[in-house]
Amino acid sequence: MNELPDCPQCGSSYTYQDGSLLMCPECAHEWAPGSDEAASSEFVVKDANGNVLQDGDTITVIKDLKVKGSSLVVKVGTKVKNIRLVDSDHNIDCKIDGIGAMKLKSEFVKKA
């Protein structure tokens, strides 16, 4: 039996071939065999100025951000240290002093 590669999106080992494409039954991802999908699935997060962000960077908030479900506000100029990048809509995971753990969108921050 041929050994098919794991899914580049979710890492599932239950992939199967459907015509000329490889399929993943767990996440429904489709890709062409031999493509560098795993390398291209690497996501890049850029700040408001276009600088590439990395895990562990320090950022500065460039707009007042209301904290959902609270009366707190993250003020302009707030520095956030040691960020963690995640692949979702709010792509920065961090802890802000006085507020706690938060997720931020990269369009509202700049690299410090």
Low-confidence stretches: none
Elements, N to C (H/E): EEEHEEEEEEEEEE
Question: Any idea what the CATH superfamily of the largest domain is called?
Answer: SH3 Domains
* Ends distance: 53 Å
What coarse outline follows from CA principal-axis ratios? elongated
> Helicity level, as a percent range?
under 10%
Strand order of the largest sheet: 1-2-3
Output the CATH topology of the largest domain.
Answer: SH3 type barrels
User: Mean pLDDT, rounded to whole units?
Assistant: 88
Question: Which percent range describes the beta-strand content?
Answer: 25-35%
Major β-sheet profile: 3 strands, antiparallel
CATH C-level of the largest domain: Mainly Beta
Can you give a write-up of this model?
Helices cover 4% and strands 32% of the residues. With 112 residues, it is mostly beta strands. The protein has 2 domains: 1-38, N-terminal domain of TfIIb; 58-111, SH3 type barrels (Roll), CATH 2.30.30.40. The strands form 5 sheets. A 3-stranded antiparallel sheet has the order 1-2-3, with no helix packed on it. The protein is elongated. The chain starts with 15 loop residues before the first strand and ends with a strand. The mean pLDDT is 88.
Key terms:
112 residues; mainly beta; N-terminal domain of TfIIb; SH3 type barrels; 2 domains; three-stranded antiparallel β-sheet; 1 helix; elongated
